[in-house]
Structure formats: C-alpha cells, structure tokens
Amino acid sequence: MSVLILAEHDGKHLKQSTRQAVTAATAWQLPIHIVVTGNAIDAIAQEAASISNVARVIKVDGAQFAHPLAEDVANVITAIGKEYKVILAAHTAFSKSVLPRAAAVLDVAMISDVISITAPATYVRPIYAGNVFATVESADALQVLTVRATSFDVAANGGSAEITSLDAPVANTQSRWVSEEKNVSDRPELASAHVVISGGRSLGERFNELLDPVALKLNAALGATRACVDAGFAPNDIQVGQTGTIVAPELYIAVGISGAMQHIAGIKDSKVIVAINHDPDAPIFRYADYGLVADLFDALPQLNAALN
Amino acid sequence: MKVLVAVKHVLDYNIAPRIKQDGSDVDIAGVKMGINPFDEIAVEEAVRLKERGVATEIVAVSIGGESSKDTLRHALAMGADRAVLIQTDVVMQPLGVAKLLKAVVDKEAPSLIILGKQAIDDDAGQTGQMLAALLGVGQGTFASAVTIKDAEVEVAREVDGGSETVVLKLPAVITADLRLNEPRFIKLPNLMMAKKKPIDTLAATDLAADFSPRLKLAKVAEPPVRKAGVIVGNVAELVEKLRSEKVIA
Predict the structure, then answer these.
(1) Interatomic CA distance for residues A9 and A13, integer angstroms
(2) B213-242, pLDDT tens digit by residue?
(3) Which structural domain, as residue segments, surrounds residue B147?
(4) In angstroms, what separates the C-alpha of B152 from chain A's closest C-alpha?
(5) For chain B, what is the domain count?
C-alpha cells in the first residue's frame, strides 16, 4: 500500500505546498505517489518526479483540467483512491474543494488541516479558529486528509520517480469553468514567502503607498487583516488569518494590527513576529518577538529609510 | 425555486472556547450558542434570492438536539419559510451530516442547497462538498457571488490568489464565504413572527442508516503559547535586532 498526494500547480510549476505535503506523507514510511492533473503537464510531472522520496508520479492529462474543476479532479481521486492507504493534499482552496468530495464517494471520514501526524492514524488539528488543538484518531482503512503546508518542511529535490499516465475520466457535465481573475503581483506568493508584511485597517487608503516600498526592499509578500479587506483597502486574496491564508514566514511584520484571535491563528507559526502599533495594550504585542509602539505613519517611512 | 439552507448550532463566535478539565472536549455546557456565522451568510443569500423573486420557498435544516431549534428560529426570523430539525444526540461529523442532509434533500427536492463554507467549531469545511458528491451534483465552494440564470447558477468563488467563476447545473450545492453578503440584523417583530413558523422534527435514525462519528476525539488541548518578546525603542533598534536575527539583510 502507498500514500497518494494530490499535486497542485499553476500550469507551469508545482506549488510549494505540494512539496510540504510530501514531507507530511513520509510519516507513514510507505511509497509515495503523486497524482498530477492538468493539461500539457509533462514538465510539471517531471518536477514532481524529482522530489525526494517520491516513488511514482501519475500524470492525468486532459483538456478539462486546463482549468480544473473539483468535480473532475475528484473523479480522478475516486477512480484510483481505493488502491491507497492514505490520500493527502495541502489544505488549499483547490484541495479543500476536491478531497471532501472524493472522501464522501469513497465513504471515508476526512481529517482537515492536520498540523501534526503522531501515529499512522492519529492527527493533531486546530479547531475553534486555532484556539484549541484536537487530537483525532481515524479508524477508516483509507485515510483522507489535508495538511497545513506551513507545519511541514519543503521536500527537496533528489528523487527520480517513474512517471506513469492515466486516462482522464470523462469530463463532468454538472459544472463548467467560466473565467478567473488572478491578482497579478511581482511580489512573492503569500503562502510561501520568506517575509510577509501585513497591514491593518488603520492604514486606510495609504495601504499600498506605505507598505509597498518596504515590501519591495524585503522581497516580502503583502498581507492584510480581515477588517482591512472588508473595508476595501486590500484585495480578498491577501487576507491573513484563520479564514484567509495561513502563513509561517521567517519574518512576519504586523503593522497597525491589533491581533484578533483569528489573525493570530494564521501567523503564530512564523519564526520572528514584529508588531508595530500605536496602542501599547494591543494583543499583538503578546505574540510579537519584537514590538514597536509607534504611529505607523511615522514608523513605516522610517523603516523604509533604515533598510537602505 | 426551492432553496434549502443547512445551519449549525455552534458556540457563539464571541466566546473563547473552554476546555473540559479532563481534556476530553471543549466544554459547551451552559455557554451561549448561536448560528454558525457562515451558515448565517447562507441563509441571508437564500432570503435575498427570495426577495429578488428568484426563490419561492426557503427551508432551513439543522441537526442536533432541542437546542438547535434556537438556530432554526434564527433562520426563520431572517426569512426562511419553514424549518426541519433532524433530531439526534449523536456527535455529528461532516460525512454523517452530509448523509442526513442528502436524505432531506431527496425528500424536499430543492433546486439549490446553500451551506456555510465551514463551521467555526470544528473548522472542517467538508460538509457542502460531501453533500454535493453524495447527491451527484455540482458544487460551488467559497462563494462570493451567486447568480441564478435559468436552469443554472453562476458562482464567483474565492480561490488562492484571486477569484474564479463557474457555472453549475441546478440542482447544485453552494458554500458561502465571508464576503458573499452581510447578514441582516434581526428585528424583534421578525423574531416574534418566527415563533409561528413551523419546525418539523425528523428522527435521524429514520433518515440514514450510518451517520455515527467515524473519527475519535482522543483529546483537546490549549495550543502552545508563544513566548513574550521585547519592546524596542525605535525603528533603528528594531532593524538592528532583525539583522542580528538574520531575518533581514
């Protein structure tokens, strides 16, 4: 029996989270297979095959995967899932849509957002927005789970897995892709950036004006609080927190962020947390390694200048 | 068009969960409960569809004990027409919930099923997708906009790095994300009126054979606490500290 990982990619490259899923999968000490769904994905399959500890890459190439729909990808998983001991993927919007659908067809109780695998079928996962850690045990013969990517190391290259092909199942007729709007940015991807600088609502209309120069110098991804996004000062997809993106960079800089529990839940695995806030009583200071009590409208330009 | 919304009775979102002394679970005895906020967004969307003349009837469904009726009354006060309580004392997990909801969907035959994208207690985020799978219908997860177009529904979805639009044939399952809408404030007269709306009770055991929990909760614990850091005096000192930590160049 083996472990099956559902790969995620952007059409050109594997997402870093797939490599983190590989590290999580090594907990079982079983052969690791990666299934890559897409259209014209030879290079991505090669990339997957070169990851350490991967035994086999299963390439499922089909026109319907040019813009993958959960219905179609789940059909791939259910077609081959019964042959595996474990099916896992990173806890991303893509896998969160696919794996529960596949798990229901396979009649398996799924475990979401696993941060630690303590035994072959025992998992630790956050509940109540990260306020509580639950240890759960699954008795199902097949385990289906998503893992929180930032809780696992990025698997390096060094493998040379065999690449096999699987015919794509017939495209589903219940759903179809229409369009997408990706926020193009030359900044690193939020979920995998080494440095993240996030702003709160108090930055207001000056969110980008004040944060962009510092982010550029630190090669940082931009993040924002839910309140900041809801107020329209930052786009949805850069919301950091339990209900947005969970980050664990080397350096997290929180500017004008009070530290709501749901935000903290999304940043607390960061290596170094810096908080800049004018309110010395802001909860964020309880989690920060370095705190600076200052008006952010003064501190940000100063920080920008100091980084020259 | 009939719309079915599934609502979960959970610990109030303003209340910090308290762990039982034996670490077996979160203690919800005597604590304020309420409708799962994402499910409230689902109800709001259904009510707006009705106000626009698209939906004709809204059925709210919940699973649990007598106390779940509070959350159903909340949905009724917002504008749902009637409610169904699937009664059970069994601890519910997403797969079991999806099986029971499927049984209700089979009876009610709605054109659209809307749920919250996740419950704020177990944070599983699975039920909608599982229900769609069991029904063999399309799914629109993390919805930020919902538009009915004849026998289809167009769903704008929040995905990593942006948004995506898909079209689903009806019937379909949609899970509501934060920004789909802002739920209305319930006025007292509506709350009084909701008391006159019917809540049917069905026994879970009559609906599905196997809805018992598969996952065993071994224990719950407080997450590890980050150690408190230091307050620096100014930006220069901050930059110096970060350079000595080697997290900036």
Answers:
(1) 5
(2) 999 999 999 988 888 789 999 999 999 999
(3) 2-244
(4) 9
(5) 1
Question: Which of B130, B216, B229 lies at the smallest CB-CB distance from A100?
Answer: B130
Assign A308 a pLDDT band (cuts: 50, 70, 90). Answer: confident
Whether residue B249 is contained in a domain is answered as no
Q: What is the CATH number of the domain that holds B229?
A: 3.40.50.620
User: Tokens at residue A23, please?
Assistant: 């590290």
Q: What is the ipTM of this complex?
A: 0.95
Burial class (CB in 10 A: 0-12, 13-18, 19+), A212: middle
Residues 29-68 of chain B with CB under 8 A from chain A are none
Q: What is the pLDDT of residues B11-62, one digit of tens each?
A: 998 898 999 999 999 999 999 999 999 999 999 999 999 999 999 999 999 9
Q: Is B4 exposed, middle or buried (0-12, 13-18, 19+ CB in 10 A)?
A: buried
pLDDT at residue number A274: 97
* Cα R_g (chain B), whole angstroms: 21
B6 pLDDT band, cuts 50/70/90, is very high
Q: B35 vs A126, A208, B6, B69, B131, CA distance in Å?
A: 21, 36, 10, 10, 20
Residue A213, token pair as written in the block: 């120069």
* H-type alpha helices, B88-234: 94-108, 127-135, 188-194, 204-207
- The distance from CA A7 to its chain's CA centroid, rounded to whole angstroms, is 12
Give dist(CA B110, CA B26) in Å, integer: 35
Across the interface, which of A109, A181, A189 has its CB nearest the CB of B163? A181
- Please indicate if any CB of chain A lies within 8 Å of the CB of B141: yes
Q: Is residue B113 part of a domain?
A: yes
Is the minimum CB–CB distance between B223 and chain A shorter than 8 Å?
yes
Residue percentage of chain B with pLDDT more than 70: 100
Q: Which letter does DSSP use for residue A102 in this model? A: H
Query: Distance between CA B133 and CA B102 in Å, rounded?
Result: 10
* Confidence check: pLDDT of A189 > 90: no
With contact defined as beta carbons under 8 Å apart, do A246 and A187 qualify? Answer: no
∠ at Cα B76 (B72, B80), nearest 5°? 115
The chain A residue lying nearest B170, using CA atoms, is: A174
B8 to chain A, closest Cα gap in Å: 14
B176 domain residue, yes or no: yes
**B 197-216 residues inside an 8 A Cβ radius of A:** 213-216
Nearest to B229 among A182, A268, A289 (CB): A289
A136 with B154: Cβ contact below 8 A: no
Structural domains of chain A, ranges and CATH numbers in brackets:
3-165 (3.40.50.620), 190-307 (3.40.50.1220)
B124 within a domain of the structure (yes/no): yes
